[in-house]
Write a structure and sequence with these properties.
alpha+beta; 34% strand
Amino acid sequence: MLNWGGRATVDPGLFCIVECGSYDEDEELTSEMFIPFSKEVGGFTDNFVSHRKCHLAECAAIVGPVLVIPDLGGHTNCYLHIKSRDIWAKQFEAWLESPSEEDVINSSDEESDADSAFDLEQQYKEQSDSE
């Protein structure tokens, strides 16, 4: 048994030191790619993190990588967790398969698009003829 940080029941094994936090999913910065994340800290001095808070975790508890970037303009313990690529792929597939009102083309839209394409072609021909 090891005595570490006041805890006398740590069995010998492979451990890592990690910083923990919590998701702030109710914030307005939540998007399809980012989730706001606040790290646990020991304290602030002049609005800056002055004491970090770390935990001892078994390496077997790690289930995957995580990527966070600082939330510029937010508190100094705030980050944006970038969702993993496999989630991006699933979201993109769902977006492709979901119907959208913006994807529906009305006949009046087709006519106006054709007219504007014709007008551009006409202008190009007139420019070419004048040169």
